[in-house]
Amino acid sequence: MNGSAAMLRNEKPEHPDLRSWLQLLAATDRLVVARKGVSLTDELAAVAKKLERERAVIFPSPGGHDIAVVANLFAGRDWVADSIDVPVEDLLSRFQRAVRRPLPWMEVKEARVQEEVHRDVDLLKLLPIPKHNEHDSGPYITAALLIARNPQTGIQNVSIHRCQISGPDRIGVLLLPRHTRHYYAMAERAGAPLEIALVIGVHPACILASQAIAALDEDEMHIAGALLGRPVEMVKCLTNEVRVPAHAEIVLEGRILPKLREPEGPFGEFPQYYGDRADREVIQIDAVTHRRNPIFHTIVGGGMEHLVLGEIPREATLLEHLQRSFPSVRDVRLMRGGTCRYHLAVKIEKVSDGEPKNIIMGAFAGHYDVKQVVVVDTDVDIDDPNEIEWAVATRFQADRDLLVVAGAQGSKLDPSSDKGVGAKMGLDATKPLVRGPLDFKRIHVKGIETIDLASILQQDTEAAFARIIEN
Ligand code: MN
User: Fold this and answer.
1) Which of 248, 255, 162, 173 is nearest to 206 (CA)?
2) Where in the chain is the domain with CATH 3.40.1670.10?
3) Could you tell me the distance, in angstroms and rounded to a whole number, from the CA of residue 134 to the centre of ligand 1?
4) How far is the CA of 83 from the centre of ligand 1 (A)?
5) N or C, which terminus of the chain has less Cβ within 10 Å?
């Protein structure tokens, strides 16, 4: 962008935000604008889905709202690489570096995201919230960063959850058994609500960082700072202690209420099925703040953007995890057919037989979603599913190279599992190491079987020996 020009003029360069990414997409012919007034029910998601592999799309005045909606921020891995300004082949290593060396955020006192404040909240009137898949229970906020604070330490966690609009100021939320749920359980045990914020419309680096498989109490916004190469500016919410990105478009401030569960779902999810309806946690919204003329970001459940967003940070984390134990691992890919979550291809520079099975076990341990692992040699292109199938066809024997683990923890959203408990399958599709012609060869002296000692040895040893030492 014009960052260096701004530096020359001794100005502070603009903080990266959603708009800087949209400007880059527009400048590279990857953004289109729909006509005004597209319907939020079914129509908007249909247009976004149709364009999901080619273009980002902005919807002005959808459903009669003043606020525009944007979808399809990522149509492939190359878009993700562009958003953090690295060549696509360096994408995973760049993300690994950011996780290894996070950059803490800095607090600011004033923020554009608080230019306008609504304390009397009616979500569907205030915001253009679409309904996405046909049998979703209704409109969902799908692209909000949920920022929560550890109730004891104040350390923040950032993650994305599906958020059903359950009432004018109420949201039903799915909390999988990870960090937000952990903080919520801490608060609920004390009988208190968990303070949170839902942040909509941020720079891609913040969205990507939220998907890192970080440890508990590792603030994902620090990873975002490392991806951006500058600390993310954060501001305190008006009604609670949560800090949110100051350059976001929209923030919903609220609390996950203790000892309360209400129906949430169904909702179209990444495995290309609906997540079920069940009693789940409830968020009470206390205030909505936003920029003047904000843009509302939405993600179509199970669409390309949803898949790619989960894919890259998971791949980087799995690669890091595997390389710690196995230096022979070169690259990993969560395959599209495996919904970018369940099926992992691992490329290795094989140095010892047997190691692929250890790598398979390591990958199962890397993330519970991983259900199938195929290990291939470096001559196989892991971006091409046909190449992986070829490796299985010509380098794999099921009785020898297959590893099955029964009854392990898996994804609750995998409909073939028993509430998330299921089997893991690993395939070693690597060639056997090329052996030298002398490997496993017993030493042997040629001629030993046919030699005739009677014709070789002299009969009179004493005389023959005397002749040798005489001189
Ligand atoms: Mn976390």
Assistant:
1) 248
2) 326-428
3) 31
4) 22
5) C
Expressed in angstroms and rounded, the spacing between residue 224 Cα and the centre of ligand 1 is 13
All CATH 2.30.110.10 domain ranges of the chain, comma separated, are: 3-304
Q: Which pLDDT tens digit goes with each residue over 154-205? A: 999 999 999 999 999 999 999 988 999 999 999 999 999 999 999 999 999 9
* pLDDT tens profile 381-409: 999 999 999 999 999 999 999 999 999 99
Ligand 1 centroid to residue 158 C-alpha, Å: 6
pTM of the model: 0.88
Residue 144 contacts residue 309 (beta carbons within 8 Å):
no
CA of 305 to the centre of ligand 1 (A): 21
Distance 300 CA to ligand 1 centre (A): 23
Residue 257 has which token pair?
Answer: 């209420």
Cα(64) to centroid of ligand 1, in Å?
37
For domain 326-428, the question of CATH label 2.30.170.40 is answered with no
Closest CA to 201 of 266, 302, 128: 128
CATH of 3-304, one of 2.130.10.10, 3.40.120.10, 3.100.10.10, 2.30.110.10: 2.30.110.10
Question: 386 alpha carbon to ligand 1 midpoint, in Å?
Answer: 35
